[in-house]
Task: inverse folding
């Protein structure tokens, strides 16, 4: 029988709201190339419809948990994003009704193994591995939709060790949140607890072991995460396990 392997993801996968309510997290849908300047820095362009991929829920971590750099990658990047929390089931949702399906907004980091993603792009392979490692989806607490006056005027900020790397507002999003919900719902049924990461603005860059990443969305959503290498993380967990059993 295989030895137990340390796990880095949250065991519960529950999203907490600032009003104290909770929601089990469903599927995590991510959009790409939704900010023009970031699309350009990646050598692409904003298209009529955004690119879409999925992250596994096992990648989710909460505020202050550790981001683990996997040994399989040499180039892990940060991407700061506004995320939409879906509150009710819907398919083919009209743009004019789509706000009623958004239960709230939260801050997300779409952590990306850029070297693995580039290899996938070069070969026409899916991005699942590049985007799906454990700890690659930090999520903040969510703000109920009723407490957000305008989701298209929220500040997005990300700093590494205090140095600002990404600063933008959601006003630069190429699509409205209504258009995003409506479009995704033409592809797959949206369900309560689903999360839609709306893409990142320019300024993405590498993370290394020992960094501390801090980020914010508007005034309410904040994240702060130490970054460690996988060997460091598993070694630490192994020691902790040994201490417990010893
Ligand atoms: Mg992204």
Result:
């Amino acid at each position: 029988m295989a030895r137990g392997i340390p796990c880095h993801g949250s065991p519960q996968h529950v999203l907490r709201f600032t009003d104290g309510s909770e929601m089990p997290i469903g599927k995590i849908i991510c959009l790409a190339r939704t900010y023009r300047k970031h699309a350009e820095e990646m050598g692409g362009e904003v298209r009529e419809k955004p690119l879409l991929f999925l992250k596994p829920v096992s990648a989710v971590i909460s505020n202050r948990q550790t981001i683990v750099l996997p040994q399989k990658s040499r180039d892990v990047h940060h991407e700061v994003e506004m995320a939409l929390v879906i509150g009710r089931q819907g398919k083919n949702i009209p743009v004019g009704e789509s706000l009623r399906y958004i239960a709230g907004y939260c801050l997300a980091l779409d952590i990306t193994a850029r070297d693995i993603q580039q290899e996938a792009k070069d070969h026409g392979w899916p991005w699942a591995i590049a985007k799906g490692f454990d700890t690659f989806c930090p999520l903040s607490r969510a703000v109920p939709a009723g407490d957000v006056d305008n989701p298209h005027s929220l500040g997005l900020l990300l700093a590494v060790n205090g140095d600002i790397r990404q600063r933008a507002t959601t006003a630069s999003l190429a699509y409205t949140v209504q258009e995003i919900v409506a479009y995704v719902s033409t592809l797959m049924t949206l369900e309560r607890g689903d999360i839609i990461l709306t893409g990142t603005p320019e300024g993405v860059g590498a993370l290394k072991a020992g960094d501390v990443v801090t980020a914010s969305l508007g005034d309410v959503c904040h994240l702060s995460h130490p970054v460690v290498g996988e060997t460091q993380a598993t070694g630490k967990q192994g020691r902790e396990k040994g201490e417990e059993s010893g």
The mean pLDDT is 91. The pocket of magnesium ion is lined by residues 30, 32, 79, 81, 110, 197, 199-200 (CB under 6 Å). The chain has five helices and 18 strands. The chain has one domain: 14-230.
